[in-house]
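hi!! sorry for the late reply, been swamped w classes. u asked for the two structures so here they r. pasted raw, havent cleaned anything up. first the sequence of the first protein and right below it the tokens
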Amino acid sequence: MTAAGSTADPDRDRSADGEMDPVGRIDDLREQIRGHDRRYYQLDAPTIPDADYDALVRELRSLEVQHPDLITPDSPTQTVGGPVLTQFSPVTHAVRMMSLDNAMDRDELRAWGERTDRRLASLGLDGTVRYVCELKIDGLAMSLRYEDGDLVQAATRGDGRTGEDVTANVSTISDIPTRLGAHAPTVLEVRGEVYLPLEAFRRLQEQTVADNAAADAAGRKGRPVPVNPRNAGAGSLRQKDPTVTASRGLSFWAYQLGQVVGADTPPTHSAALDWLRTLGLPVNPETRILDSLDEVYDFCDHWVEHRHDLPYEIDGVVVKVDDLSVQSALGSTSKAPRWAIAYKLPPEERTTTLLDIQVSIGRTGKATPFAVLEPVFVGGSTVGLATLHNQDQVRLKDVRPGDTVIVRKAGDVIPEVVGPVLELRPDGLAEWAFPTECPSCGGPLVRSEGEAQTRCVNPDCPQKVLARIAHFGSRGAMDIEGLGEQQVQLFLELGLLHDVADVYSLDYERIRELPRYGDTSVRNLRAAVEASKSRPLANLLFGLNITHLGQAGGEALAEGLGSLPAIMDASVDDLAAVDGVGPVVAASIHDFFGDPANRRLVQRLIDAGVNIQGPERSVLPQTLSGRSVVVTGSVPGHSRESAEAAVKARGGKSPGSVSKKTFAVVVGDDPGASKVTKAESLGVPMVSAALFEELLETGEIPTGGGS
């Protein structure tokens, strides 16, 4: 596979003696890049990730540096954006909309900083410049034109000089005021980014899947499920019917001034952003003014780590010189300003070859298809395996062994295959069929009516047994250090384990004889097993591998019914009456404990001495009864767990996310940006960590503690 998933044949660009033909390679790269520009800017349907596209552009730029006589004015390295769509009227920008040069890593960012320092020194401005850092929103660049305070035109960037008139659609975006606040100038042109928030993107995906299921049932063809918020947002904006755009939940951040008539332009970029705020335009709250390039580098490093704390996607940080007169002195190239740079975050999507699709069997028998990939570096690590979720997702994505596929790895999330690059699919590639037999035991794979998952129903399936015991010892369950999947596999092979109850009757003398074990490791394992007996009842319930029962459900059961015997003997109605346990989960719990084999297994655990009692009911005043309090950041005197426990002890709930039903958000040091932003957008009161105890005592928002 060539760099960046390119369709180019490298040999085609070589001369007879094997040397690279720069003319041929440059022409080939320009052709590819223009094709990708058309798919990205016009069709909102790119076929390669940004990182692969950037690699093509960087290769072209490198060749043009080596051969400057081959540079042409229409080269993609010398132009901005893409051509204008014909379905919208063209708009000529009063002030050209430029793109930004990219820094792909810390070294390139530092090199830009050093170049800027040298240019500033030549202007006699070294040591006097501040910088503004903004998040680079992964959306669609937009120009808004206001005349006498009224929104009169909205246009895409297009090629930088001419964009597309999308005023009717943009007017449906609730974040964008159609009338500015007092003292608006005669003309104000605002640049910004239209984007699709993650929550709205997920809703669109779910709605598309539901619509496709209905279409399939009616014998009609569905539409592609959106694969990322940027493309879905751009497609939503370019709808012919503005009511469709209005339904998608698009948002907007303003980040730059364009043309201004009838008012003095503020002296700095940061002051311009403040002015836009006063006029009623949304400006991203994560923008920072920094005094040195070292602070700029630290800001960029922060967002490499925290990009997924936000309720929208970013793909970088934009760094700008703050003083507008200094910006003017630094000037621009034909394509981008010298006073700004876009620091691109490490890529989270790349293309590679799908070698095979296999199926793994989990602890509840769930059969999960996964992709075996040609290893590719993405999201900070080399990925060779990626999830395909379930049978329906494989069918919807239509990925096939032999395809070139887009792989995504975001933060700590399990890598997934986004979809195939259809234009690179080999002819005659066969569609993959979900197996009907378990790859571990050969038993049937069954999909119950109304469920998305297919399962192996053989209780003795070797892979299920392995996964069940490994899960039982995992951190969220009984937390037995030294009983990971590899150890469980070894103990199963030696006949030391057959089920989870055997964990408490391990033959330690035999284990001591194994090559990898000594006195210390055996002593530690024995101590970890013994310590697990005192784990909370909720951990035991989660560790039992009951279908549909998660950690939160285990906590709800333990608190609601008080003991394991009470849970085992409860009716479906009694179980469903527990707050946090729905009818589907209740039926699954009842079925589990109704199985004589499971009751015998649980009795062996009880005989081994595991804790079967739920938490003691709090004697504290229930000041927060029925109220949800979200804690974010570190609270003095508390761990995250103890802060949440303090809320629950007062009768409240402490979920991990903010919603309209949230009573308050307690904000400690280094809070999650997404929770604070969500609370601000929903008008949920925020309480400082210093007032947390007062909130617990009174159950009311402390005076001066809410926003």
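now the second protein. again sequence first, tokens right under
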Amino acid sequence: MKHNILFLVLCPCFCLGQRTDTTFTLQEVVVTGSLQERPVTKSPGSIQLLTPVLLRNSPAQNVDDILVMLSGVNSTRSDGIGNMHSNVSIRGLAGDEQGRTLVLFDGIPINTSDEGSVNWNSLHTENIQRIEVFKGPGSSLYGNNAMGGVINIISKKPLAPFSVNASVSYGTLNTWKTSAGISSRINEQFALFISGYYNRTDGFNNIPDSLRTAPDYSIARFMKEGGVYAKLLYSPTTWWNAEIACDLYRDKRGEGEKIEAPEGEYRRFNHHRIQTRFYGEKKAFSYNLACYFQRQDYFKLDERITKNAYQRFDVKSDRDDWGAILHLRFAGKYNEFAIGSEFKNGSIDGGDYYVTSPDKVVNQGTMTFLSVFVQDELNFWKERFWLQLALRYDNAFFHKGSFEAAGDNVADFNEYNGALSNNRWDNFSPRVALRYNPGPAVSVYLSYARGFRASILDDLCRSGWMWVGPKIANPYLGPEKIDNYEIGGRFRLLPGLSLSPALYYARGKEFLYYIATGKKLWGRMDIYQRRNISKVNLKGLETDLDYTPVSGLKININYSYNHSEIKDFDEKPELNGKALTYAPRHQLKGYVLWTGKTIDAMLRGRYKTRQYTTEDNASSIAGFAVWDVQVSRRFFRNRLYVSGEILNIFDNRHMNTKDYRSAGRLANIKLAANINKD
């Protein structure tokens, strides 16, 4: 199976007419590693960039479907556009925990404080210009959640005086996707970007036969979603620039089970995001101030048969995150000095409200962060050496926590009712990194960094049911921490051929795990609580081989090895030496991309080995390989665009999580029109 992938990604099979507007070089400019635009070779760390060309030509239906092709990145998405929820992890930090990888949209965090999650379905690819992925701890600049790395999604900006676009696609499972947008550089000061989309699919029944029970209430998991994104830019001078963006998203996703409710169980993840930025520069000084608000209105209709009686309750949660980030930068002859601060407030107001009885379970809580950071980047010996020194201090405060269970069906949790204790903790996140560029063909770096991840509000203030069984809140939880040591670089082996390896070793401590409290529910079921307990060791290797034999043709092969295991777990010694969940030991991926005058095409393949789904490694899902292809062509001076894609060409009905199988082969055809006024 591995050899088949290698054959496919190595085969330069698209020898068609060339187009010369696509270049691939080692001088890609990124901002995520240092908060300042600079070539990758001057940023001391492992950074990968998804360019507009890769975003446009990748056979994928979601942003995380594109990210999964990068070395060291793993995703739990299993059933395409209809997937209820997916996580993206970097470097083996437990793929079922999104909170250990920070996700930014235009430099602003979008992980929720309640779950640490990111709704990847709400990120529309048509709004994205490029994506930067910083691997390894990024807490020295970005703070919470940046343990495994940072994913920075950068939105499009209007360039042409006037542009209108629209598209429609149809595919397997009666899947429709439509979008439209307009952008305009109105004048030298104002620019506007607006886009909207609506998608739907009938879905499929993704419960394997082996997991179905009698009576079988399972049905297809439908999906309906739509969103509107708007951004206004005002740029009167280089010293004063302003942006305001608003993102509205609505969806409804079937859970795949129906008993009495007309549409069966379903969930809604409704988002409201507002982001503002003020920035500018004058001579050696620049500033960036961002303010943001994000609300996720979450709803779940849950129905079940308990003791031959029908029971239904609705889960309703308001998840709010808001804050401000300030960066100031001073550029000298041999250094760039930056200072900054951040304020963030995350809260949850949620509960389970029974429809078939008067019972309810309500939880509330707030986490507030106040942070400052300082960074200095020095260059010397004619910019051959780049040294980065950074330190961030975070002070976290959990407060306004409360829990209430009322009613006969939830009476067993009554003893945990009432206000929860406040909890305050702080954390320092240092980073030291050095990059050496002896010549244009060689660039190497060495780094040490500490990352952290705060507990989610769900663990701090909610008592109820989790996958382990009944659990109670723990307001005293502190942060998980990790120390990462890394060496890597980029080497140009031949003209057009480069190798980018990275070797890392990380030690984590105070990782969160569920521990039996010694109390019993109904006298027989252990009651659990999450606690900062274990130590974790990670070691791994990532390497990318990029080859551009001719203009317009790019070949990438990448391999990742990750060995992550639990260490020194005194409360559960039987878990010592066990691998983290959803962290494949080996991943092999690659693609061939051709961008020509008459046709664009990408063929890609990926393979990953077995993933454990339980902490004791007693259960796992098998490794699998998937191949995808997309072919597109532009007509009438790029005003009309036609593309076709096939995902999972060989219909591999694999499992990417322990509960759901994949949709198998998915085919889509897309027609798009674009009108530009130069």
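hope this helps!! also noticed smth abt the second:
The mean pLDDT is 91.
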